[in-house]
Amino acid sequence: MKRILIMMFAVVLFIGMAAPVYAAPNNDTYNYNFWGQSVPAPSPYELEQVMYGTDWKTGNLSSPQDLYIGSDRRIYIADTGNDRIVVLNDQFREVQVISGFDNNGSKETFNKPEGVFYNGTNGHLLIADTQNRRLVELNGQGALVRVMGEPKSSLLREGFQYMPTKLVIDKAQRIYVISRGSYEGIMEFDTDGEFNGFIGTNRVKFNPVDLFWKRISTKAQREQMQLFIPLEFNNLDIDEDGFIYTTTSEEKSDRPIKRLNPSGVDILRDKGYFPPKGDIRTLEVGSAPGSSIFIDIAKDEGGMYSAIDLKRGRIFTYDKDGNLLYEFGGLGSEQGKFRTPSAIAMLGDKVLVLDKDNNRLSVFQPTRYGSLIREAVKSLYDGKTDASTASWRQVLQMNGNFEVAYIGIGKSLLKNGDNRGAMSYFKLGNNRDYYSEAFKRYRKEVVFTHFGTIVLGFALVFGLGYTAVKLAGRRMRGKHYTEIGVLKNPFYTMVHPFNGFWEMKYEQKGRLKVVIICLLLLVLFTILKRQYSGFVVNMNNPLELNSLNELKFIVLPFLLWCIANWSLTTLMDGEGKFKEIVMATGYALMPLILIYLPQTLYSNVITGSESTFYYLLDAIAYIWFIWLLFVGTMTVHQYSASKTVITMILTLVVIGIIIFLGVLFFSMLQQMINFITSIYRELSFRF
To answer: Backbone phi, then psi, for 396, in 5-degree steps?
Structure first.
């Protein structure tokens, strides 16, 4: 028996060592599916034109930092290095170049302006004159309206340096300003230019290890340590409803984009597969490592918004729910790429991007694929479900991997009352929330229509089950007690573990063949659970399901536990034999076996809000299993409760040691094989 188990252990360990390897695609345009895998996608945008300052007869741009499209459809560029504002019309022709203004007879100029905003209410232009530490408001003719200097307020910390870089104005004429180095949040000014306070402060993030050392350090040591302060915003935009979109340069953040209401509360929706944070997989071939760093954001029609990634030069567009619609762009010197993108804006369906190193403005227009996506999103946003569905179907003809399109069609079908059809599309789109809602409505229809048939079916199943139990009891009465005891012992042990394990050990009611059957049943039911659990609770990728994996996750841990426990207890005066350890561990698996199958059936008739009981069954099964394993170990080895707990913990430690030695052995074996192979090749080349 020991030889068989050792051979099984070696085979399973070998299978467990063979892990699949995935290579991330290196496509110019792609999207992410529900499983976080990048999948190829048609290009949503194409380059229309690239323009330099010489094309407008204004001279070359110099490190332009901001770009804004006003309600007058004029394009305002903060040409920072040249200390000016360049104004173009929607045909990209020069309208005006603002290099300064007259202030009570004195000619004043800008000093590295980094932000510009057009106020559609009064037609005024507001400029963040960064190095002069002020805001300048000009009218439509470029004449000075007012200058707002450094704010004076008790709300500002001591030593605060006012360096305005970006700004917006809402419908109430409140001014929101980002000041470089201001980690308190966005500065809010009233219509008179008076400072009101900060809104939207980012949360402080810190390393728990650093926090620990800071807590135990002396006051003098803490003064020398780095302060825990929130990250500052780097850009912002405002939509028609007065909500402010912001970006931060934080690495590894799940909330680099925020949508703030007037109170500064983030209300950005993230109902997509992943939060709106750019690239999900950040170790792709040929790309910079690390998470995306957004440098600017632009509001769009239909609740959409686009943000540009400084690290990889990619533009990501999301809908109002936070679903990634498409991405395009990249770093490079060729046209259509960026060296250092600094700003992004929307001119209708066109995307405008400033490159401060190449000193140029790139204009992108949507392809047929991109136009269809935009039409579908805007139609659904406006309540035109039929038009949205038609556009989504055309999108799927061009890109069958686009799961958002399936969700869009499902929403339209759900709104039109086709619940069953909506379920199929939500399943294709891997959206469990909407699927759950559609299933809830469909289930109600089925129960209402077939209520009598359902009740009759339940009664029939109950009657057949009751009859089968009675007949089985009559047949078993005449059989020998020992045979009945052997078959009943695993079930008896579940509810009477102390007596059950005692009878297994001392009354010979345990059988290895029963343990093997239990192990095989657990593998089978686990496979069924992973494959056929209801969609709302099944988070397994069907493309990655492999029955051999259950050997790694069930048989391998089972064998490791038995071997480690036997090896350890022989040194701790344990009375259990290896055979008894195997039987006790196998019988402890019974709760998992009995719960998994009905749990799988139950998962197919519940909605997301009803999944709590499903996970409760999981918890009951695992707790019951651990309890039986504890009692079995204590009974087999005749340990006290405390010694049993220590033994189980040490068994886990021994399992870790065995795994380490196994990995080390296979690694050395692989190196040895490679060494012998290289010697053989060298000798074959020489002789």
So the answer is: -65, -30
Distance of alpha carbon 532 from alpha carbon 604, whole angstroms: 8
Number of domains, the chain: 3
Q: Would you state the pLDDT for residue 219?
A: 60
Q: Does a structural domain hold residue 178?
A: yes
For the stretch 21-26, contacts whose Cβ atoms lie closer than 8 Å and that sit 24 or more positions apart, written own/partner, are 23/285, 24/281, 24/283, 24/284, 24/285, 25/284, 26/284, 26/285, 26/286, 26/287
User: CA 601, 605, 611 angle in degrees (round to 5)?
Assistant: 90
Within a domain: residue 373? no
624 φ/ψ angles, rounded to the nearest 5 degrees = -60, -45
CB count within 10 Å of CB 659 equals: 15
In the numeric block, which tokens belong to residue 632?
Answer: 């079995």
In 3D, which of 431, 430, 411 has the Cα closest to residue 421? 411
Q: Distance between CA atoms of 345 and 353, rounded to whole angstroms?
A: 7
The answer to whether 188 touches 198, Cβ cutoff 8 Å, is: yes
Residues 362, 392 within the same domain: no
What's the domain range around 603? 480-670
Q: C-alpha distances in angstroms, 465 versus 462, 471, 487?
A: 5, 10, 19
pLDDT of the residue at 181: 85
Distance CA 296, CA 166 (A): 10
Contact 200, 194 (CB under 8 A): no
Kindly report the pTM of this predicted structure: 0.82
Q: For residue 560, is pLDDT > 70?
A: yes
From residue 336, give the alpha-carbon distance in Å to each of 358, 360, 664.
Answer: 12, 11, 49
Residue 474 CA from chain centroid, whole number: 57
> Cα(565)–Cα(653) distance, rounded to whole angstroms?
10
Whole-number Å distance between alpha carbons of 449 and 452: 8
Q: What is the pLDDT of residues 606-634, one digit of tens each?
A: 998 889 999 999 999 999 999 999 999 99
- Output the DSSP codes for 51-108: E-GGGGTS----S--EEEE-TT--EEEEEGGGTEEEEE-TTS-EEEEE-EEEETTEEE
105's tokens = 């007879």
User: Within this chain, do residues 361 and 400 fall inside the same structural domain, yes or no?
Assistant: no
What does the angle CA 396 – CA 402 – CA 408 come to, to the nearest 5 degrees?
A: 75
Phi, psi of 626 (to 5 degrees): -65, -40
